[in-house]
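Good morning C.,

I know you're traveling, so I'll keep this short. The sequence:
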Amino acid sequence: MAFILGIYEELIYSIRSLDLPCLKLLARLRFREFSKRFHWEFLLAVGAGIAIAILSLARVLAWLLENRPVLIWSFFFGLISASVFTVSRRVKQWDLRLLVFAGLGAAAAFWVVGLIPTKTPDAPWYLFLSGAVAICAMILPGISGAFILVLLGKYQMVLQALNNREFTVLFLVAAGACVGIVLFSRVLNWFFTHHHDLTVALLTGFMLGSLRKIWPWKETVESLGRTHGQLIQENVFPRALNHHTALAMGLMALGCLVVLLLDRLAHVKEKPRS
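The tokens, ready to paste straight into the viewer:
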């Protein structure tokens, strides 16, 4: 959505603004200079929007995912499908090299979202690493940070730590996330600055490959049960064309329409600047 609304690059740049000189200003209590260097206003606005969305929609989405998974995933599938189209338009001129990178991104995401969770250590260094890797995935379109935690075998552990107030675990994961996002945002910012079209092509591929995970119709082929608490599922086509399938298709179309309208609004707001 940040890509669609045209704020993704600004988001990365704002995160990158929290650098070592910025932290030194904060440590010296030079708040005025700190506020000028660190783009906190933009991040505060985005963070407030995320918080409002979580507080207002979390329970609704949780119920839908539990009770109407096909319908909610159909809507999300429409959102991401249209996003692939709108984001790809940010490449000035597609060529064979960019198509190759988009294909590599799609293949990488397709492979990652199909991985099976594994048993991993509970050592402090691994919790720190898990936080760093998950936050990097979270700011890449098409790859879920929560799903990466599942693959790393730490999703349930983090949830339990939140519920049981195990602050040591939360601190290690949060510290890894802070370090990861600060460092990775600098990498992304460099790529956007020096290889803009190539980066957008790669991220477009990530979004395309992630469609494997959010395909609405799935069939459980195996349960990992006590080991991981996860199900192994494979994508299938709807077994019958009934009113439920028609509703799911309608929600897919609605998701596409929402993205296309948002993209149009974003372009309208950009016109006065040119």
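Safe travels,
E.
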